[in-house]
Design brief:
Layout: H1 4-7, E1 15-23, E2 26-33, E3 47-63, E4 66-79, E5 87-89, H2 104-112, H3 120-126, H4 131-141, E6 152-163, E7 166-174, E8 180-184, H5 189-197, H6 201-204, E9 209-212, H7 216-219, H8 221-225, E10 230-233, H9 235-268, H10 285-292, H11 295-298, E11 311-313, E12 318-320, H12 322-332, H13 335-352, H14 357-372, H15 377-388, H16 390-395, E13 399-404, E14 407-412, H17 416-431, H18 438-449, E15 454-455, E16 458-459, H19 460-463
Parallel strand pairs: 2-4, 6-9, 9-10
Antiparallel strand pairs: 1-2, 3-4, 4-5, 6-7, 7-8, 11-12, 13-14, 15-16
């Protein structure tokens, strides 16, 4: 009968349930306390009961699919001392004075912010309140501190456009756990320099590896702030640099043949023909192949499924397979095959030497020499990039332990996890239709993405009880 105290996480044996009624999808539970003598807190005289007032309180916890409304029977007391006449109402521990929702609402609102897909408006709608109110509750309870630096940290920028003077925020992540250590409102030195300088030197000395892309200010962080660390350039960004050069070459080829097709089409028109603003000449073989089958050069060959069986192609009006498309593509420009083969040399190198830094260094020097003397300008430039970032690239072949859902496992030093984290930053900004208050945005992001966020020194996974999963319901 008194299991309402379990549901409300309330230790009060005086509270009893006197009635339960159901109106549609709403369950109304009447609560009251047993009658007992009450004395004036001011003069000590006995208090006289002036009747019972029914107070309606919303309790945002589903009860067997029903929404709950608590009807509180509150006695009204008045001091019998004519010189005092103090008046008060009976209180219930699980709801504050003048509130129309139980105190459990605050923690449930805070817990709802753990879901990045939730917005302030959607949370407010669920708890029958305003979005301003739920934001005030969140800011009241959630003020997250920076986590301590570990021996391996990752840094990367993400587009937020919250600050007017800088569109990019800086994310710092613990490589081992994947938890965000912190997010700074700007990657500018005016923000990063005082931030890192104020971290105790003993803590900064713990950092052994700093993983980043090829942005030179990040590379210089090692010399400026982390005396015992070495820089690590993420292999993904190295390959991205190479693929961007090849993709740029594709775009130039595509533009060349589109311009050719346009000129041919215009020259074929009659002199009195009205030329529209936008001209769509017939699709040539070159434009068709360069647009649709560029992946045969840009993608890793190991990831391409080559089909030997032929399929009818509507453009060429004949049966073709993957090898036919590849041959036709390479006939457009002889450099395409060379670019593909040179790219594959680096892909194979990047794949085969994980954990073997010594041999990776020998092989990388060979590639630098080979690319530096080849005919393709893209890879001659790539050779200079590899030479400039040789040591940070080699550091990316170091293996380290990570803590995943299934336990510890070995992984190469990479910025892949922080790229995934940056996606969550963008999702949060998109769902909220943009943010103006960076501190609120920072706390929301850290609270939603840390595995065990701590509120006011307490583990929030312990502090916030998930009532919706509770098996102890009122019958």
């Amino acid at each position: 009968m008194n299991s309402i105290t379990d549901l409300l996480d309330l230790e009060d044996n005086d509270v009893t349930i006197t009635d339960i009624t159901v109106e549609g999808a709403t369950k109304l539970i009447t609560l009251e306390t047993s009658a007992k003598q009450s004395f004036c807190p001011l003069c000590g005289f006995r208090m006289h009961s002036r009747g019972i007032r029914t107070r309606k309180v919303l309790h945002p916890i589903l009860q067997d699919g029903y929404s709950l409304i608590l009807l509180l029977k509150q006695r009204r007391w008045r001091c019998i001392n004519n010189d005092c006449r103090f008046e008060t109402n009976e209180n219930f521990k699980f709801v504050d004075k003048n509130r129309r929702q139980s105190n459990a609402t605050d923690m449930l609102i805070v817990h709802a912010f753990r879901d990045l897909n939730e917005t302030s408006a959607s949370i407010a709608k669920r708890f029958n309140t305003s979005d301003t109110h739920v934001n005030e509750i969140f800011d009241r309870y959630v003020k997250l501190d920076r986590l301590e630096l570990t021996d391996i940290i990752s840094i990367d920028e993400v587009h937020t456009e919250i600050e007017s003077d800088c569109k990019y925020a800086l994310v710092i992540q613990d490589f081992h756990t994947g938890d965000p250590i912190d997010i700074l409102k700007s990657r500018k030195s005016s923000i990063t320099e005082p931030y890192f300088s104020n971290i105790p030197i003993e803590e900064r000395k713990r950092v052994k590896y700093l993983i980043s892309d090829m942005y030179n200010p990040y590379i210089r962080f090692v010399d400026k702030y982390f005396p015992n660390a070495v820089s690590v350039v993420d292999s993904f960004h190295v390959i991205q640099w190479m693929n961007n050069g090849i993709d740029k070459y594709f775009r130039q080829l595509l533009k060349k043949y589109r311009d050719r097709d346009r000129e041919r089409f215009l020259s074929s028109l009659q002199s009195d023909t009205v030329i529209p603003d936008r001209i769509y000449p017939p699709l040539s073989d070159e434009v068709y192949l360069l647009s649709k089958y560029r992946f045969l050069v840009l993608s890793n060959q190991a990831n391409i499924t080559y089909h030997s069986d032929t399929r009818y192609d509507k453009h060429f009006h004949r049966l073709m397979n993957t090898y036919d498309y590849e041959d036709a593509l390479f006939k457009i420009d002889p450099h395409l095959r060379s670019l593909r083969d040179l790219k594959e040399l680096y892909i194979q190198f990047n794949t085969h030497y994980a954990g073997d830094v010594l041999n990776a260094g020998t092989e990388l020097d060979k590639l630098i020499k080979l690319y530096g003397s080849c005919e393709e300008k893209i890879f001659r430039d790539f050779s200079h990039t590899l030479k400039n970032f040789r040591d940070p690239i080699l550091n990316s072949f170091v293996m380290a332990q990570k803590n995943g859902p299934c336990g510890l496992y070995d992984s190469r030093l990479s910025n892949g996890p922080i790229e995934s984290l940056n996606r969550k930053v963008k999702d949060l900004k998109r769902a909220g239709r943009g943010y103006k208050n960076f501190e609120h945005f920072r706390n929301r992001f850290l609270y939603a993405t840390r595995n065990r966020p701590v509120l006011n020194g307490t583990d929030s996974s312990i502090q916030i009880h998930n009532y919706e999963d509770d098996d102890e319901y009122i019958d």
